[in-house]
What we know:
- The complex is a heterotrimer of chains A (about 350), B (about 280) and C (about 290).
- With about 350 residues, chain A is of the alpha+beta class.
- In chain A, about 25% of the residues lie in helices and about 35% in strands.
- Chains in contact: A-B, A-C, B-C.
Amino acid sequence: MNQSSKTVIEISRVSKRFGNVVAVDDNSLVIHEGEFFALLGPSGCGKTTLLRMLAGLEVPTEGSILIDGEDMQGVPPNHRPINMVFQSYAVFPHMTVFENVGYGLKVTGVPVPALRDAVMTALDQVQLGDYQDRMPDQLSGGQKQRVALARALVKKPKVLLLDEPLSALDAKLREAMQLELVKLQNTVGITFVIVTHDQDEALSMADRIAVINEGRIEQIAEPRAIYEFPANRFVADFIGKMNVFDAKATSEGDRIAIEASDVGSFTVSHREDMRPDQINAVAIRPEKTRLTSQPPDNSLFSAEARIVNIAYHGKETAIFVEIGQHTELACAVQNTSRSQQLPEIGDICWVSWKADDVLLLE
Amino acid sequence: MRYSLIKRTQFGPLDYIHQGWMKLTLGLSFVFLYAPLLILVIFSFNDSRRNIVWRGFTTKYYEKAWNNDGLIEAFANSLTIAFFSTIVSTILGAMVALLLWRFRFPLKGAYEGAMTLPIVIPEICMGVAMMAFFSRVGWPSGLVWPFNLSAITIAHISFSFPFVAVIVRARLANFNLELEEAAKDLGASEWQFFRDIMIPFMKPGLIAGALLAFTLSLDDFVITFFTSGPDTVTLPVKIYSMVRFSVTPEINAASTVLIAITLLLTTIALWLQNRTGQKLGH
Amino acid sequence: MLGVPPGIWLTVFFIIPLSLIWLFSFGDKQGLVDIELTWTMANYARAMDPLYLQIFLKSFWFAGITTLVCLLVAFPIAIAITFSPARIRPILLLLVILPFWTNLLIRTYALIAVLRTKGYVNFGLEYLWDGLNATLMFFGMDPSGLIGERFTPAPLLYNNFAVVFGLVYVHLPFMVLPLYASLDRMDRSYLEASLDLGATQFRTFLSITVPLAMPGIISGVIITFIPALGSFLTPDLLGGTDSQMIANVIERQFKSANDWPFGSALSFILMYITFFVLAARALFSRQGSAMEAS
């Protein structure tokens, strides 16, 4: 990671309304130089609008955006030190690869020899050195994306914006491109801001993630923190799978006692940021549970359960169990061996977890 | 500061319509397109023959136009021609559309090309060709009304039905071919399929085509000009002869009526299109 | 079966009439009404007479200027409509299309009332003149030396200007619609990408918008140019004696001059020009699509 603590983008209290629709609602955010930052959220949550406001393609209704310390209000996109890779790539269909990549330099009056060198360097960076004379319709989706990347990188922007860059690629290529983008970012040292609805993408590539829902930033944190310590119910639910139960909490010395109907009661460590009376639910991730045929030892919380459904996924198996009458719970069992025995529907078993793996939710 | 020289804008880069010069262009264009017509309509109600200064509201020129037998006769002729032309054009156009949509046959390209000829050739050429044709084949003239209008009606059908074909075919292009398979699978015969599935599906296209044929016929001047005789004058031809003579409020009144009819028909067509569009959930 | 009735109709009431004047165009006028088919080229040769050649050139000139003016006016209109909010876009489109549905004759007639010597434009100009006159008097200046003794109406009708003005008025919607269609189809992220890469709005228009809208531009140019070239009514009603277009000559041959063979030859020359333009366009678009496909 080559990030410093120097701020490159500062978004303060930015809102964007289209008529009565609030696309971005009073968001503040700081992005550091050299960072790989992801805006993650379901489609229509306003993350693309936020990105487009950075590029100058949309004008904020309220709030300010500072890039490199300069207020960007009213600055048109062609004067911003920022470049973008569009979701559709927007590779100009009537220009060759070379002309596409050189376009941003040509329109700002870069002399031909310098332009040629810069374009060839950028094309080499994205491994398209031999494609300079191709027309865009002779390129695959992945190659078009590389052209779009090179075209933006050749401008040496302060920040590179990527709008759902991998969504049009097939699964295999997407995974390869994820690694490549991270590598590229490390090489060029430019701040990347990526918009994605794919949590795997965000978790695997980004240094930090902002989870956005209905125009509001729900949490800004590093990928591990987002997954293991989601700030609220939306983040917990949106990232990965989660079993959520209604629960009541009370103080019990230096710990918190949880009473979850049907599931049972247990105590967890005290949390600074949450009073017991704020807690209305608890949650546990499927892979943090264990299923055993015998009750486990007392260090774990456990409850008796009946297996109601089994879904085989190859590397793991999702096993759905019922605790009591009404509470269903998903457990993930890693298929670590070919000879692994799986339970059957109707079996009675014990489901258990470490009490501190439980999330407390408002 | 680097950015101090930049002209800052309060709108997005593609919100061209909010820019002053764009508003001005758009506004001036609409003034250009509408002012003459609006003036024409407004001054048809003006109580002055000089027709330049507003002298008060009157409908006397409409009464005058109404009492002008030649004008009324021309109007009746126009409506009669448009009525018959619309019926025949819609049927012929629908046949062409169905044929070109559904079947492959030798020389299809030539057939299709020939059908677009009346749309692309200059009106004046078609007009003089029709004039020469009807005079050379000795088409009977001086028949009783409405048969004296047959030559004009035929000419109108010739240039209208290819337009109907284009519109109906555009509608057919959206037809889901699985509907036919489903109908046949459920036991419909070819004829039942046509009656129960195709005709209802084509209906909006047929109506739009018919309205277009009606407007084309009602509005045509050039081709009618060459096929009409002294006793077969249509409204546009009558207005033309009046315009050549002078600019009078009476012509304004007659023109306003014609504009109103076309506007009404266009509104109906658009409304129907909208309604079927909404029904289909588009 | 389905194709037979329309086929017969088209043959009898369209192809045969056209063939008839095609034959006439090689005929020789005998007396008042008789035409003898002599396969003479004299009618076509006569069309090359400087008098008629000049009228052809004038027609091209009028149609060309009309197309150019329409293109220049229609482009901003089409851009404004394309990028207007979805709520008002249908209304703007309707406003462009409506005149299109209004009778050509009536629209031309409406222009006469606006442009004639005692028309609204001159009325407005006179009003301005009077105002200016009074202002100059007020400041103690003698207006006669500056703006003339008396108001002289601008000659706006019955000349070449009126014809081109009328042709633009009539054909503007023809140009706006194909331009709008091609701009609307265009992915606007191309424009955004261009701006994002540092190009100015004007540069983006020249380098991205125009090339990508080229099919629409060509369509618009053709469907404006062809009907403008064959215009009869506009030069007939708005033009002066020296602003005749080819259609007016054709009309005269078939009506007052009663020289059908010559009129037929002129008609076919006009049709050949039309077909040539359409064929060139078809060839161009095939080349374009071939380039895209390769």
